Amino acid sequence: MSTRPVLLMIVPPGWGRFWQEPLAAGNVQAYVHGQDLYAPGDIEYALGFRPKPGFLKTLPNLKAVFSLGAGIDGFLTDPDYPRHVPLVRFVDDTLSTEMAQFVVMHVLIQHRSERMYAGAQREAKWRQAMLPRATENTRIGMLGIGEIGAMAAERLRDLGFPVSGWSRTRKTIPGIKSFAGAGERDAFLEQSDFLVCLLPLTPQTHHILNAQLFAGLPKGAYVINVARGGHLVEPDLIAALDSGHLSGATLDVFETEPLPETSPIWKHPKIVATPHVAAITSPAVAAKSVVDGIAALQRGEPLKNVVDLDRGY
Ligand code: NDP
Ligand code: OXD
C-alpha cells in the first residue's frame, strides 16, 4: 500500500496533465477528478480553483485544500465548504510579478496614448500629441494593496507616478501613501486618476466598483479591474464611460467567465478586455508550493498562506 500523500485535483478538463508530473516528482499520489478512479475516503488533500459547490464536503478525510489561484472566492462561495479544513491560497513572487507587469502595461498604454498611436499608424497618419497629463501629476490608486497590489504600486512608484493604496489596515510602504478603512475611502478615490482594483472578492467588496464609487473619482479617471468580475457592476461602468466621466477601463475578469459573445464589453470603444490572463499560475511553481505545504504538515509545522475563513481572504 502506498504511503504517499494522496491528493485530488479538481481542475477543468485537460488541465490535470500539467500538474500530475510535478506532483509525482514531489512524491504526491495525484488523481484527477472526472478522469481517474479513486476512493473519496483516501483523499487527504485537494487542489483546485472553483470546485463545484458541495463537492469538497464529500471527501471525509481532507487535511488541507490548496487553491490554484491567489483568489479563493471560488471556494468560499460554497456554503458547504468544510470549515475545519485549512484553505491555502497561492502566493508567489512570479504571480505577483506578472500581475504587476499587466497593471503597469495597461497604465502605460493609457498614459502614453498607445491606442491613439496604433490607430494613427493604421491610417498612416503622423499624429504627434503631448502626454495627456504629466507623469508626476498622474495619481494611481490601488484599491487593495496586499501581496500583488504592493508590488504593482512599487513598480508604478519607480516609474515616477504618485501612488497610494487603500486597504483595511494601514500600510507603511516607502513612497506610497496609505489610506485605510471605510472612513478614508472617499479621500482615496478623489485623488485617483487611475484606479486599480486588487481586492479579494468578499461580501464587503462585492460590487464595490459601482456608480457611486465612479462618481467619487476625478473626471477622466481610468479603471483597471484585475481582481474579480464580482467587484464590478458592468452597466454602471458602461454608463460612466458613455457619460464621459471615466475615460476608459481595462478589464481582465468578469462576472460571467468566459465573457459571453453578446456582452457589450467586447466592442465598447473605451474598454480593453482580456480573458483572465493578467497572471497565469505556473503548474511547476504551484505544484512545488503544494508539495512543500504537505511536507510541512507532515512534519507537524504550520501551513503558510492559510486563508482566514471568517475574514474571507
Ligand atoms: P491580498 O489578500 O494579499 O491583498 C488584499 C488587499 O485587499 C489587502 O490590502 C487588504 O487589506 C485589502 N482588503 C480586503 N478587504 C478589504 C476591505 N473590505 N476594505 C479595504 N481593503 C480590503 O491579495 P492578493 O494581492 O494576493 O490578491 C488580490 C486579488 O487579485 C485576489 O483575491 C484575486 O481575486 C486577484 N487575482 C487576479 C488574478 C488575475 O489573473 N486576474 C491573478 C491573481 C490574483 P489588508 O492588507 O488591510 O488586509
Ligand atoms: C488567481 C487568478 O486568483 O488567477 O490567481 O485569478
Q: What's the multimeric state? A: single chain
Radius of gyration: 21 Å
Shape: elongated
Instruction: Determine the structural class based on helices, strands and strand pairing.
Output: alpha/beta
CATH fold assignment of the largest domain: Rossmann fold
CATH superfamily of the largest domain: NAD(P)-binding Rossmann-like Domain
Please report which band the strand proportion falls in: under 5%, 5-15%, 15-25%, 25-35%, 35-45% or over 45%: 15-25%
Tally of DSSP helical segments: 9
- Residue share in helix: 25-40%
Q: What's the β-strand tally?
A: 12
Q: What's the pLDDT, averaged over the residues?
A: 96
- What is the C-level CATH assignment of the largest domain? Alpha Beta
Largest sheet: 7 strands, parallel
Q: Give me the CATH architecture of the largest domain, please.
A: 3-Layer(aba) Sandwich
Q: Mind explaining what this structure looks like?
A:
The chain folds into two domains: 6-92 and 281-298, Rossmann fold, CATH 3.40.50.720; 93-273, Rossmann fold, CATH 3.40.50.720. The strands form two sheets. A seven-stranded parallel beta sheet has the order 8-7-6-9-10-11-12. A five-stranded parallel beta sheet has the order 2-1-3-4-5, covered by helices on one side. With 313 residues, it is an alpha/beta fold. It has helices spanning 16-25, 73-76, 93-111, 114-122, 147-158, 185-189, 211-215, 234-242, 283-298; strands at residues 6-10, 29-32, 45-48, 64-67, 87-88, 140-143, 163-167, 176-180, 194-197, 221-225, 246-251, 271-273. The chain contains nine helices and twelve strands. Bound molecules: NADPH dihydro-nicotinamide-adenine-dinucleotide phosphate and oxalic acid. The site of NADPH dihydro-nicotinamide-adenine-dinucleotide phosphate has 31 residues, from helix 3, helix 5 and strand 7. The site of oxalic acid (OXD) has 5 residues, from loops.
